[in-house]
Write a structure and sequence with these properties.
The protein is an alpha/beta fold. It has 3 domains: 359 residues, Ribokinase (UDP-N-acetylmuramoyl-L-alanine:D-glutamate ligase); 28 residues; 86 residues, Rossmann fold, CATH 3.40.50. The protein is built from 17 helices and 17 strands. The strands form 3 sheets. Strands 1, 4, 5, 6, 9, 10, 11, 12, 13 and 14 form a 10-stranded mixed sheet that branches. A hairpin with a 5-residue loop joins strand 7 and strand 8. Helix 2 packs across helix 11, helix 6 packs parallel to helix 8 and helix 12 packs antiparallel against helix 13. It is elongated and about 105 Å long. The two termini are 56 Å apart.
């Protein structure tokens, strides 16, 4: 049953415009959610009580988010063509995510939607100072197994990917591994965001085993862990022979243990570390005036990393190239911490232009896309009104307006279907102008409503798209003998 639904979605992809195109994109598969943002004084420990920052409200706002969604949006801000691979519900939250992604410049053509899926959600609790705690409900993302990847996403990866990104956060590890293998088969770079430590992936998140985590990190070309996750991974893989906990050493150990082409490790607001097989650099972050929210800072860092790699056409080979790449990634991460949520805003774009004045950035989609749609709607309305005006006969129009204005009784409006809906709204508009009006369905005149009309006093207006609607013509023939004004 589930398999037939997935295959049906694949047929839908094949007919979509983006799926039929040839342009290569950075394709990311992972968490994509609606974030419910709350401000709290302190996140309470288990068994304790806490308070929201405001005594009058709990929910601050709803935003799109998620580890993979976030880094794709930041990459798109940096001019990278990006697309999301996902399973989503055909529900209000899913539609909101897809609409917002399109506004951010991220392609949604490879998202499989179905009424049997539900869209993922997160509840984000932000403390004073910007630190946050997150509760996640992965929903349909938890269904992205190896089989789901092969059926839904392998064709897109083979035909359209310039790079594949994924995560260890919400996607089952069997699906993560299959995504990385698909990237290998397609001959493109793969990026793995180790968003949670291996023990959390196995226990709390129930994504798979720590052995599967190790298999995944060895398969990825580029590994982006936080320091806590990196240290646990080194301990897991090196055992008692692990080196010291210095950041640079941890990153070098990961390159050696995992065979990574690049390890880019974050450490909160401290220096990030980039290492390849021959060099390691620590890169200081740019100055931050105020940390508003750390949600998505690591995701923005990865988005910046993708931007830097794409701009240079591949991975840096020397120390200076590593440092420049780290500076770009750090700037993206720092910009993210100075606004609420994990996706780019107008203010974060402005900050990036200060941090990286030579970098060309796209417009922030949530501003541009919505205003473009608004202006497009106004233009359509203007064209429709102009079209109506060009068809009007001034003499007949004057007679029509005069009849409504001098009517001493009731103006009846009538129609069927869509014309009936317009007639009903027309009656409401006339009533709001102080003209007594009433809507009668054209099908009801011969069922007793003919008696409502008073000859010599009332006016009846029929609306018909083609002018020959049977119910309107029949009712008009009955009324025409007794009415002075009938339109």
């Amino acid at each position: 049953m589930q398999r037939s639904v997935v295959v049906g979605q694949l047929v839908r992809f094949a007919s979509s415009s983006a799926a039929a195109g040839t342009e290569r994109l950075v394709l990311g598969c992972g968490s994509n959610v609606i974030d419910h943002i709350y401000r709290v004084r302190v996140v309470p420990e288990a068994g304790a009580k806490g308070f929201f920052s405001s005594p009058f409200r709990a929910l601050e706002k709803k935003l799109i988010g998620g580890v993979t969604l976030n880094h794709l949006c930041w990459a798109a801000l940096g001019g990278v063509r990006a697309g999301l691979l996902a399973l989503q519900g055909n529900d209000e939250l899913g539609r909101l995510i897809r609409r917002s992604l399109r506004n951010q410049g991220v392609a949604t053509d490879f998202i499989a939607t179905d009424v049997s899926y539900s869209t993922a959600q997160c509840h984000v609790f932000i403390q004073d100072g910007g630190e946050r705690s997150i509760m996640m409900a992965p929903a349909a993302t938890s269904l992205i197994t190896a089989e789901a990847v092969r059926v839904n996403f392998e064709p897109a990866i083979q035909q359209r990917a310039s790079m594949v990104t994924t995560e260890i956060s919400q996607v089952p590890l069997s699906g993560v591994l299959e995504l990385l293998k698909a990237a290998k088969r397609a001959g493109v770079l793969s990026v793995l965001d180790l968003d949670i430590p291996p023990s959390v992936a196995e226990e709390e998140a129930e994504l798979g085993t720590v052995e599967e985590v190790v298999e995944c990190v060895k398969m990825a070309d580029i590994l982006k862990p936080g320091k806590e996750a990196a240290e646990e991974l080194v301990s897991l893989m090196a055992g008692p022979h692990r080196s010291s906990g210095e950041s640079g050493t941890v990153a070098e150990e990961l390159v050696r243990l995992c065979g990574s082409k690049l390890v880019a490790m974050t450490n909160g607001g401290k220096d990030s570390v980039l290492a390849n097989g021959s060099q390691v650099v620590e890169v200081a972050p740019p100055p931050v005036s105020e940390v508003v929210d750390t949600t998505g800072a690591g995701d923005a860092f990865l988005g910046g990393l993708i931007v830097g790699i794409t701009r240079e056409g591949g991975l840096p080979g020397d120390r200076e190239g590593l440092r420049e790449l780290g500076s770009i990634a750090n700037a993206f991460g720092a910009a993210c911490t100075q606004s609420i949520g994990g996706v780019p805003t107008t203010s974060s774009r402005d900050l990036l232009l200060q941090y990286l004045p030579g970098l060309e950035l796209a417009q922030v989609g949530s501003d541009v896309g919505e205003m473009t749609g608004f202006h497009s709607s106004l233009a359509s309305d203007q064209a429709a009104v102009s079209s109506v005006c060009s068809c009007l006969d001034d003499g007949k129009l004057q007679s029509f307006v005069t009849a409504l204005n001098v009517c001493s009784g009731t103006i009846f409006t009538s129609g069927i279907g869509k014309s009936g809906a317009v007639s009903s709204r027309f009656a409401g508009s006339l009533s709001s102008l102080g003209l007594p009006s009433h809507f009668v369905s054209a099908a009801e005149w011969t069922h007793g409503d003919l008696g409502k009309v008073c000859a010599g006093r009332d006016v009846v207006v029929f609306l018909s798209h083609g002018g020959a609607t049977r119910e309107c013509v029949e009712a008009a023939s009955y009324l025409s003998a007794s009415l002075e004004w009938l339109f």
